[in-house]
Amino acid sequence: MIQFIKGIIFSIDEEDILIEVGGIGYHVFVPSRIFPQDKEAGDEILLYTYLQIREDQWQLFGFPQKEQMEVFRLLISVSGIGPKLGQAILNHFSYQEVISYILAGDSKGLSQAPGVGKKTGERLVLELREKFKKLDDGKETSNNLSPGQDTALNQDCVLALTQLGYSAPEARSACMRTSNALGPEADTQDLIKGALKLLGKF
């Protein structure tokens, strides 16, 4: 399996790029949201990759961060979630937000992604919650959501921010970052106040 590709960007399209490595061009699908905005044709890039092999074609899916690729692989392990839908989810949410929604059992939040309905969101939570707990344990993702963190406080924080007009992903990201910064002693009011500061509204 191709674990990663490091080479020169030959061309960039909306959802895929062509990377030249040793005179060979590799076509790699990359969600537009996570593609480094400072990269352009002629720049060097390293992408962690997932290779999908089918009878009629081979496809490479690339991610700037290893954690993004790991979350992608877990997403597409769920029945009914193919690589295109997995990429669509990561094009709508950050990988931290995907982990947060699943650990919190928030299938409704997941259903905001294009192509993810209510049943698909519930299936993602059911099949991945335990796997994501293991993924979260001791890795970089724990900087965004600690394994022992009280998710009820985060849920209250997210609810308060969404009632103020913020989108769920925006609210969740701000609450997670605030919780990580303030630590386990912070209560709901502390989280809300800190999240509003991050969002520049306090």
From TrEMBL:
Residue segments, region Domain I: 1-64
Family matches, as Pfam families: HHH_5 (PF14520), RuvA_C (PF07499), RuvA_N (PF01330)
Gene3D superfamilies in UniProt: 5' to 3' exonuclease, C-terminal subdomain (1.10.150.20), DNA helicase RuvA subunit, C-terminal domain (1.10.8.10), Nucleic acid-binding proteins (2.40.50.140)
Sorted UniProt keywords: Cytoplasm, DNA damage, DNA recombination, DNA repair, DNA-binding, Hydrolase
UniProt cross-references to CDD domains, sorted A to Z: UBA_RuvA_C (cd14332)
Signal peptide boundaries: none
Compartment annotation: Cytoplasm
GO MF term list: DNA helicase activity; hydrolase activity
Quaternary structure and interacting proteins, as annotated: Homotetramer. Forms an RuvA(8)-RuvB(12)-Holliday junction (HJ) complex. HJ DNA is sandwiched between 2 RuvA tetramers; dsDNA enters through RuvA and exits via RuvB. An RuvB hexamer assembles on each DNA strand where it exits the tetramer. Each RuvB hexamer is contacted by two RuvA subunits (via domain III) on 2 adjacent RuvB subunits; this complex drives branch migration. In the full resolvosome a probable DNA-RuvA(4)-RuvB(12)-RuvC(2) complex forms which resolves the HJ.
Function of the molecule: The RuvA-RuvB-RuvC complex processes Holliday junction (HJ) DNA during genetic recombination and DNA repair, while the RuvA-RuvB complex plays an important role in the rescue of blocked DNA replication forks via replication fork reversal (RFR). RuvA specifically binds to HJ cruciform DNA, conferring on it an open structure. The RuvB hexamer acts as an ATP-dependent pump, pulling dsDNA into and through the RuvAB complex. HJ branch migration allows RuvC to scan DNA until it finds its consensus sequence, where it cleaves and resolves the cruciform DNA.
Name listed for the protein in its UniProt record: Holliday junction branch migration complex subunit RuvA
Chain's gene name: ruvA
